[in-house]
Design brief:
Structural class: alpha+beta
Distance between the termini: 22 Å
Strand order of the largest sheet: 1-2-3-4-11-10-5-9-8
Oligomer: single chain
Order of helices and strands: HHHHHEHEEEEEEEHEHHEEH
Largest sheet: 9 strands, antiparallel
Radius of gyration: 27 Å
Length: 358
C-alpha cells in the first residue's frame, strides 16, 4: 500500500541502495571488531582447556598408567565429571569476558548511534529529524503513556533512549525506545535463618513509543489496543511524578466502540477501540489508519497501542529486544534490522498523520 505521512520519507528501495553503496562499507569496521573478539574468545577457551588437560596429565601420570583398571572406579568418573564441569565453566567465563569487552567497545564506537543517524539523515527528505541517544523530555513521554491509558500501572522506574524528535506544522514529536518497570517484593525462604525480603523490578512495557503534542486539545478520549493480553482498559491511573503536581485520569467514562464484524474486518479481529464519545471517533478511524495498525500488528507480531487525549497522541508497540544492539554471534551487516526499523518509522508516522485534525 502507499504510505501517506505529514513527514516525507524516502522509499525502502532507496534505503537499500544507500545501505549497499554506502552504509554497509562504514559498518565493516564494527563487523571486523566483532569477528576479532569472537576468535579471541574461542582461542582463549581452547588454550585454557589445553593447559588444564596438560596439567591433569602431568599431575596424574602415574595413575593414568593404570587407567584401564581404574576407569570403572568412582573417583575416576568423578574426575571426568569435574573436568567436564570445569571446561564448561572456562568456556562460559571466556565468552562472557570477551562479549563484555566487545559490547563496551561497540557502544564506545557508537555502533547504534551510527546506524540510526545514518538512516534518519538519508530517509528524511525535508531534514526535520534530530537525534539524541539520551532522553528528550522523558516526563512528557511517561505522562503520555500514563494518561493515554497504555500502561497497566504507574511505573516506579522509567527509561528512554535513542530519540528521534522534531517539529512539523506546530506538531512536536518524539520517537524513542522506552522501558517502564514496577517495583515488587518477594519473600526468600532460608533454611538456616529467618526469611528475607528481596526487591526486584518487573517490566510493564518495553518498546517503541511515538508521542506528539498538538496546538489545540482534542475534545474526546480515544484508546486503540491489540486484542490479547492487555484488552482491558485500565480504570484509573494516578501519578505524582510530574513537577510535584498530582495528575490523574479516570477512564471509567470510556466505553467499547462497536466496529464492523470481526469475521470480515481484519482490524476488528485484531484491535479493540475505547472512547468517551464513540459516535465522534468512528469518523477518525479511516481506512488508512486501520491498515497501518493491521500492518504493524502483522509485521512485528507485537501488541500495538494508540491513544489520543487532551493535546497528546501516542503510538506504542511492544518490542522484546533493543534495536541495533551489537550482536556477538551474528553478522552486523544484515539489512533485516534496518528494514524493520524503517517499517516502524513509516507505519508509526503513518498512524500519526491519520490522527492529525483537519
Amino acid at each position: 500500500m502507499a504510505f501517506n505521512s505529514f513527514i516525507r520519507l524516502r522509499a525502502l528501495e532507496d534505503l537499500k541502495l544507500f545501505y549497499e553503496n554506502s552504509l554497509q562499507e562504514e559498518l565493516k569496521s564494527f563487523e571486523a571488531r566483532r569477528k576479532f573478539f569472537l576468535r579471541f574468545a574461542i582461542a582463549a577457551s581452547i588454550g585454557i582447556q589445553l593447559c588444564y588437560v596438560a596439567a591433569i596429565l602431568y599431575w596424574n601420570r602415574e595413575e593414568l598408567a593404570s587407567v584401564s583398571e581404574r576407569i570403572r572406579e568412582l573417583p575416576v568418573l568423578r574426575k571426568v565429571a569435574e573436568v567436564g564441569i570445569f571446561s564448561l565453566g572456562i568456556w562460559f567465563v571466556c565468552f562472557l569476558t570477551a562479549y563484555s569487552i566487545y559490547e563496551y567497545q561497540q557502544q564506545k564506537a557508537g555502533f547504534k548511534e551510527k546506524i540510526i543517524q545514518s538512516i534518519i539523515k538519508f530517509i528524511d527528505i525535508d531534514q526535520v529529524f534530530s537525534y539524541s541517544s539520551h532522553a528528550i523530555k522523558p516526563q512528557l513521554t511517561e505522562r503520555a503513556l500514563n494518561f493515554g491509558a497504555i500502561l497497566r500501572k504507574n511505573p516506579d522506574k522509567f527509561s528512554e533512549e535513542d530519540c528521534i524528535y522534531g517539529t512539523v506544522d506546530n506538531i512536536s514529536f518524539c520517537l524513542s525506545e522506552v522501558t517502564t518497570e514496577e517495583k515488587k517484593k518477594r519473600k526468600i525462604k532460608s533454611k538456616n535463618g529467618p526469611d528475607r525480603t528481596e526487591t526486584y523490578y518487573e517490566t510493564l512495557f518495553n518498546g517503541l513509543v511515538l508521542r506528539a503534542e498538538f496546538e489545540h486539545p482534542f475534545d474526546f478520549f480515544l484508546n486503540i489496543r491489540s486484542r490479547g493480553s492487555h484488552e482491558q482498559l485500565p480504570c484509573a491511573i494516578q501519578s505524582k511524578r510530574f513537577a510535584g503536581i498530582d495528575y490523574s485520569i479516570d477512564t471509567n467514562s470510556a466505553e467499547l466502540v462497536t466496529l464492523g464484524s470481526s469475521e470480515t474486518d481484519e482490524f476488528s479481529r485484531s484491535f479493540l477501540v475505547y472512547s468517551d464519545r464513540p459516535s465522534e471517533v468512528i469518523s477518525l478511524l479511516s481506512t488508512d489508519l486501520k491498515e497501518y495498525l493491521v500492518q504493524l500488528k502483522k509485521l512485528f507480531r507485537r501488541d500495538v497501542f494508540v491513544s489520543v487525549n487532551e493535546q497528546r497522541a501516542v503510538i506504542a508497540i511492544e518490542y522484546s529486544s533493543d534495536l541495533f544492539e551489537p550482536v556477538f554471534f551474528g553478522s552486523l551487516l544484515k539489512f533485516k534490522p534496518i528494514r524493520e526499523y524503517f517499517a516502524h518509522l513509516e507505519l508509526m508516522f503513518g498512524v500519526l498523520s491519520e490522527l492529525i485534525p483537519d
